[in-house]
């Protein structure tokens, strides 16, 4: 059976290397070593107070601002206007499509109405012709009947 050996000694090995030349010490403000390696004393660096900084005006940088940001209405108003125009354009396109469909429907309805009316007119004309034929047939039959009856009574 294998037993686990516990290691003795440091868990982490560190290799002390020299600090790079760009490393600045926070204590003496010299370059080339870390703060914990510092042998010099603390250096006081006098800086102006905030009040002194505020009293001394600095030169302001001129920034070129695009024309769209200079307008008083603002960028949001411009974006909203563009969105509204786009909505209006889409609505007009939708209305055009709807009108085309309505026009087609109307044309179909008119066509069907014409066919129906034409067939009704044709039916009425045929009905009138059949009535005329029937009337003429009845007139012929009555005439024949009268002739037969006249011939029968005259002889």
TrEMBL record:
InterPro entries documented for this protein: ZCCHC10
Residues passing through the membrane, by range: 131-153
Keywords recorded for this protein, A-Z: Membrane, Transmembrane, Transmembrane helix
Biased composition (Basic and acidic residues): 81-96
Superkingdom, natural source: Eukaryota
Region described as Disordered: spans on this chain: 81-102
Pfam families per UniProt: zf-CCHC_3
PANTHER family, alphabetized: ZCCHC10 PROTEIN, ZINC FINGER CCHC DOMAIN-CONTAINING PROTEIN 10
Name listed for the protein in its UniProt record: Uncharacterized protein
């Amino acid at each position: 059976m294998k037993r686990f050996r516990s290691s003795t000694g440091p868990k982490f090995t560190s290799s002390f290397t020299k600090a790079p030349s760009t490393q600045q010490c926070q204590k003496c403000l010299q370059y080339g070593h870390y703060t914990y390696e510092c042998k010099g004393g603390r250096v006081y660096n006098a800086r102006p107070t905030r009040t002194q900084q505020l009293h001394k005006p600095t030169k302001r940088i001129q920034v070129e601002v695009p024309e769209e940001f200079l307008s008083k209405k603002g960028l949001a108003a411009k974006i909203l206007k563009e969105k509204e125009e786009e909505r209006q354009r889409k609505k007009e396109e939708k209305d055009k499509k709807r009108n085309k469909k309505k026009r087609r429907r109307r044309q179909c309805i008119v066509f069907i109405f014409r066919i129906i009316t034409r067939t009704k007119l044709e039916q009425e004309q045929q009905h009138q012709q059949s009535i005329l034929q029937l009337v003429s047939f009845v007139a012929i039959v009555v005439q024949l009947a009268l002739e037969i009856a006249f011939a029968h009574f005259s002889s």
